[in-house]
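Table S2 (continued). Query chain:
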Amino acid sequence: MMPPLVWRPDLAPTIAIVATATAYAAGVRRAWAHAGRGRGIRVAQVAAVATGMSILAVALMSPLDAMSEELFAAHMTQHVLLAVAAPPFLVTGGLLLGVFWALPLRARKSVVSLVHGTAWLQRVWLVLSTPAIAWFIHMVAIWSWHVPTLYELALRSGAAHALEHFCFVGSAMLLWWTIIHPREQRRTAYAIGILSIFATAMHTGVLGALITFSHRVWYPAQAAGVAAWGLTPLEDQQLAGLIMWVPAGLLYVAAMSALFVAWLGSARRGRVAIACAIGVAASSCGHPDASVVPGGSIDRGRQSIAAFGCGSCHTISGVPNASGEVGPPLDGVARRSIIAGQLANTPDNMMRWIEDPQAVEPNTAMPNLHVTPQAARDIVAYLYSLR
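Corresponding output:
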C-alpha cells in the first residue's frame, strides 16, 4: 500500500511563489490603471503567467514536493515542471515586467537609470542574452545538478535545494528570453529558438537515457524511502530517467511546434507585406503612409529617424545604419508597457518623450534633439509600425 499524499509545502518556496504572484498582480493593476485594461500587458499574458505560476505551485507546494524526498521519479517530475513547463509561460507573460510595474515610481526610475547608466551591466546582459550563451548556461545547470555530488547535496541542504530550483527556472527563463525578446528579426529568432529547443531536447534526452539504462543506482541517498512505494531503487531511477526522456521530450516538441507555427506566421506576414507594397505601387493597397498615429506619416518618420541620427544609439529595423547599442532596440516598442520607467506607452506620451526627454526624466542619457512636434508624431508613427 502506497503512503498517503501529504500537503507539506516548504515555507520558503511558498512565500516566494505567493509574493511573486502578488507583486505581478499589483503591477498589472497599476499598468492597466495608467494605460487601460489590456494595454502594455495583455490579458493573454496575464493568463500565461497564471499558468506558469500554477505549474510552480504544483511542483513546490503540492504533495509532489513531499514525494520528491522519497522518490527519484517524483523529484524528476518536479525538475521537468521547473525547467521545462513553467519558464516559457512566465517569459511569454512578461512576469518581470509586471513585477517591475509593482515597484514605486522612484524605484522604477532608479532601476532604469541603473540599467542605462551602467555600461558593464549592459555588456554582461548582451553576452548572457546571446542565444548560444543562454543555451549553454541552461545545459550546464541541468547537467551540473544531476551530478551525484551536487544532487545529494541538494537532498541534504535546503539552501542547496533552493539554489538548484532557482538555477533550473532562471536558466530556462534566460533561454526563453532570447526567443521571446530577441535582438534579431522575429522570424530569425523563431528559427534560432527552434534550434535551441531542439538542442536542449537532445542533451536532456541523452541524460534521461543514461539514467534509464544505467545498471547502478546514481543517488543512493534517494533510495531510502523507495520501498514504501513498491519499487526498487533501480526501478525508481529507470522511471525517473524515462520521465526526463519522454514526457519532457514531448514538451520540447510542443514548444518547437509552437515556434514553427509562429515562424510560418511571420513568413506569411512578410509575404503579405511584400504583396501590399506591390499593391501600393499599383494604387490598390491603400495609401503608403497609413498610420495608427493620427496625423503621422510612417515614411516621413523613417526619414526623420535617419536625419536625427537615432540609429547611432538604437537598433531600428528599416532605417539604414541604425544599429546602435547604447540604448535599447526599438523594434516592437509599441508592445512595451512603459516609457522612461514611468510613462504609460501611448502615442502622446511617446511624442512627449521624443520632444523633450529631460522634461520626463531629468537624469536620462537621451539627448534633447529639439525634435518638432510634427517630426515627433511622424517618428512615433514609424516606431508604432514596428510590431
